[in-house]
Write a structure and sequence with these properties.
The protein is mainly α. The protein has eleven helices and no strands. The chain has one domain. The chain is 78% helix and 0% strand. The longest helix is centred in the last third of the chain and has 45 residues, at 179-223.
């Protein structure tokens, strides 16, 4: 990996997680936007940590405790960034307000009832689904869930314009993410999926992509484009869809 590519990978780690990197980069908008191609690799890093955590905790505690720990560890490793986006998106989309008011709701700091419910449902469903999987399938799910989730969000950045008239985080990705980004990120994602699930992994990717495309359509219908919050929501939805379809 070239120096510039390594730098952008570390920028992606720095942006998506609280994992310390050797140097805290002051990324330009171009660096941050182009780091999106490495999102699935960051997902693989997260998945590896979850796998190791599950193996270690499972030696001491019952499986359900390990499953709960895995769900909470993923939240902690990401700083709750994507859950916050899911909550803000749920509050906005289910507010029955007009487009501008929904965009304003996403910028409010407090979480409403629909946002709180979305977080609870998301975490509870992840916990229950992981608890229903066989030990081997659960290990695979823990690794692929963050990978496919961060691959799927790239489609939203490519397919939707930025929803606001003012500049925001979503602008950075919309401006610098191209079709080439989707292709390269898919090349990063496929080896992990095929290694752990072979052809069944491809079916999972296709089904998650279908869910993602529906969410993209719904997001366009509600607010006319993407925001940083809807991208966070897309990751959470794709993660959940991954462990649903991996069964």
């Amino acid at each position: 990996m070239g120096e510039n590519k390594l730098r952008r990978f570390l920028i992606a780690v720095q942006f998506l997680t609280i994992i310390p990197v050797p140097y805290r980069f002051r990324a330009t908008d171009e660096d941050l936007g182009k780091s999106m191609v490495y999102f699935p690799l960051v997902g693989l890093l997260l998945g590896g940590i979850l796998y190791g955590f599950n193996q270690a905790v499972g030696l001491i505690f019952p499986d359900r405790i390990a499953n709960l720990g895995c769900v909470l560890t993923l939240v902690l490793l990401t700083g709750g960034l994507h859950l916050d986006g899911l909550a803000d998106t749920a509050d906005a989309f289910f507010s029955r307000k007009n487009r501008q008011r929904m965009l304003d709701i996403m910028r409010e700091s407090q979480i409403g009832a629909m946002g709180a419910m979305a977080i609870v449902f998301d975490l509870l469903l992840k916990f229950e689904i992981l608890s229903s999987l066989s030990p081997q399938l659960k290990k695979t799910a823990l690794i692929l869930m963050p990978v496919i989730g961060r691959w799927a969000v790239i489609f939203q950045a490519v397919m939707l314009p930025y929803a606001r008239t003012s500049q925001g985080l979503g602008t950075v990705f919309n401006k610098h993410v191209k079709t080439k980004t989707v292709l390269l990120s898919t090349l990063f994602t496929l080896p992990a999926v095929l290694w752990f699930r072979r052809l069944n992994g491809l079916y999972t990717m296709v089904l998650v992509l279908m869910v993602t495309l529906f969410f993209i359509w719904y997001t366009r219908r509600k607010i006319g484009g993407a925001t940083g919050d809807t991208m966070g929501a897309a990751i959470e939805i794709a993660e959940l869809a991954t462990i649903v379809f991996i069964t």
